[in-house]
Each structure stands twice: as structure tokens, then as C-alpha cells.
């Protein structure tokens, strides 16, 4: 046993090393788990339990299990998609994922607008798509409309509708 393993085991025994906080959802609650993650209020890991843990170290009989899933998501290139909090870390990653799946028109909301080099890098990456892939121009609009009010939400939808039908 190496020194690190000894220290880790000792820390677990003394209660110094503790498991990370987690919230567990059942396999039929996957949508709830993703909604919970989007609130940003969770701490630690969000897990989806597919089946009970196997206590034996060697699995002798594996029971096949079918998990219902959508194989691929696609976005209509002629529609515009609104992403609230679109300049945050998750919003930028979501935008990039959507572009890789066909979205060409996005409205990213942020009350403060583009403020960091990280955000600028992502917007630059979107512009490069048009240069790398022929006829694949990405139209990104950054909106500072406050979508947390009913009036702001209507204004944001009107703004997006001026670009294309909202998807």
C-alpha cells in the first residue's frame, strides 16, 4: 500500500475525509434531475440511479436493462433559440452544443453583456464556424433585456422574433 492510500484510509476512519454531498434521482426522474441542476442551488453531485449497487466485486449474472433515451437532438437552422443566462459558463456550453447540432441563430441573454475574455473567446469561436464550414454562418445576438420580468420576457421574445421564428 502506498503512502497516499494509507493517508486516505486513515482520513476516512477518522472522519476527516468525507463523501461529497450528493442528490440522487431514480432512473425515471432524469428530467427532474436536469431541471434541479439548472436551478444552480445544488451542492455536490447530482446522480441518476440506474440500478442498485452490486455488493460483489465480480458480477456473475448481468441483467440487460433498457434505458429510454433520445439518440440525438437537432435544432432547426432557420429558427432562433433564446438562451437566458447565455453568457454564463453553462449557457455558452449549451450554445456551442446547439450549434454543433444545427442551430444557426441564437439570442444569448446577459444583463451585463460581454465582460470577459472567456465570453469573447466563445463568440469568436461561433464566428469561425462560418469560415470553417461553407454556408454555415452563425448569427449570435447578445441581449441585455432583463428576462426575469414579464415585460422583459415579452420584449426578449419580440427581439428574437425579429430575427426568425422562435424555436
Automatic annotation (TrEMBL):
Record has Lipid biosynthesis as a keyword: yes
Gene3D superfamilies: Medium-chain alcohol dehydrogenases, catalytic domain, NAD(P)-binding Rossmann-like Domain
UniProt-listed Pfam families: KR
Keywords, comma-separated and alphabetical: Fatty acid biosynthesis, Fatty acid metabolism, Lipid biosynthesis, Lipid metabolism, Multifunctional enzyme, NADP, Oxidoreductase, Phosphopantetheine
Gene Ontology MF term list: fatty acid synthase activity; oxidoreductase activity
InterPro entries the record matches: NAD(P)-bd_dom_sf, PKS_KR, PKS_NRPS_Biosynth_Enz
One annotated GO biological process: fatty acid biosynthetic process
Start and end residues of each Ketoreductase (KR) domain: 80-145
Name by which UniProt lists this protein: Ketoreductase (KR) domain-containing protein
Taxonomic lineage: Eukaryota, Metazoa, Ecdysozoa, Arthropoda, Chelicerata
Amino acid at each position: 500500500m502506498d503512502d497516499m492510500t494509507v493517508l486516505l484510509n486513515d482520513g476516512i476512519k477518522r472522519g476527516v475525509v468525507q463523501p461529497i454531498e450528493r442528490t440522487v434521482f431514480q432512473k425515471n426522474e432524469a428530467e427532474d434531475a436536469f431541471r434541479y441542476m439548472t436551478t444552480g442551488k445544488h451542492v455536490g453531485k447530482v446522480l441518476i440511479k440506474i440500478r442498485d449497487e452490486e455488493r460483489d466485486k465480480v458480477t456473475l449474472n448481468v441483467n440487460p436493462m433498457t434505458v429510454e433515451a433520445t439518440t440525438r437532438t437537432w435544432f432547426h437552422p432557420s429558427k432562433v433559440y433564446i438562451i437566458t443566462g447565455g453568457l454564463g459558463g453553462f449557457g455558452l456550453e449549451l450554445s456551442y452544443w446547439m450549434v454543433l447540432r444545427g442551430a444557426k441563430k441564437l439570442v444569448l441573454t446577459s444583463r451585463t453583456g460581454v465582460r470577459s475574455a472567456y465570453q469573447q473567446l466563445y463568440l469568436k469561436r461561433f464566428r469561425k464556424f462560418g469560415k470553417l464550414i461553407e454556408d454555415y454562418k452563425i448569427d449570435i445576438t447578445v441581449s441585455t433585456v432583463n428576462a426575469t420580468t414579464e415585460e422583459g420576457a415579452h420584449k426578449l421574445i419580440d427581439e428574437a422574433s425579429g430575427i426568425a421564428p422562435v424555436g
